[in-house]
Amino acid sequence: MENFVLNNGVQMPKIGLGVYNIKNENEDALLYALEQGYRHLDTAAAYRNEELIASAIRKSGVPRSELFITTKVWSTDLGRKTRKAFEDSLRKLQTDYIDLYLIHWPAKNYMESWQIMESLYKEGMIRAIGVSNFEPEHLEKVMKQGTIIPAVNQIQTNPLLQQEALHDYMSKHGIQHVAWSPFGHGNQQMLTHPVLTGIAAKYDKTAAQVILRWNLERNIAVIPKSVTPARLKQNMELFDFTLSDEEMKQIAALDEDKRGFIDPRNKFYLWTTRFIPLS
Prior knowledge:
The protein has 12 helices and 10 strands.
């Protein structure tokens, strides 16, 4: 596995496993993923499966020191509840440190949470701290009012939502871009697009592999989710081909700025109790 080096020197695998909506009946898939060499597991308090992740790690026999575990504080725990939320995640994950801890959404009181996370980082409880779904105005506030620049911003990124301006902003400030939902929630328009399938055929790959490789070549880490063994294996097989400049341009032309989930600038969702953890 190749790594990106975060702005504090911590190494993070370029490919991780997103575990949104993975449940107890999917534990075999987690074990298979760890067997295949996945070492970055990306979870969140809102996914309600941190205990499952701990169980799979324990059964896999993979040493904790080889793993990179990401989890996130949920919107209803922002503010002074953040330390307790972090401690709850530690307990559920059965570990005494987190590799990467993120604010899940820029909801109300995120700056108070950031200050608590800075303290946890300085106490050695977290190896790197970052954010998720933050726009430039949110990042600007964190950098002006905080003392630590976020190591990561995890945002929805795929060929139909390429996030070029935000990507450039993060690169300028040394914030690692991590793409969640790289396949647009299994968007068939994307996975069957003739540009992507045509490039895939050239390399004897799938359109999904081309999408992941496209991200890596933009210096973007990926956390695709799957519970299918064949796809879990394919999602790791990205280092035996590279895309040409022309192919990168062809994919760049697919951008529709098409968001497939909540807009992080919409305070109606982010700053009210209506925005609750997903079951």
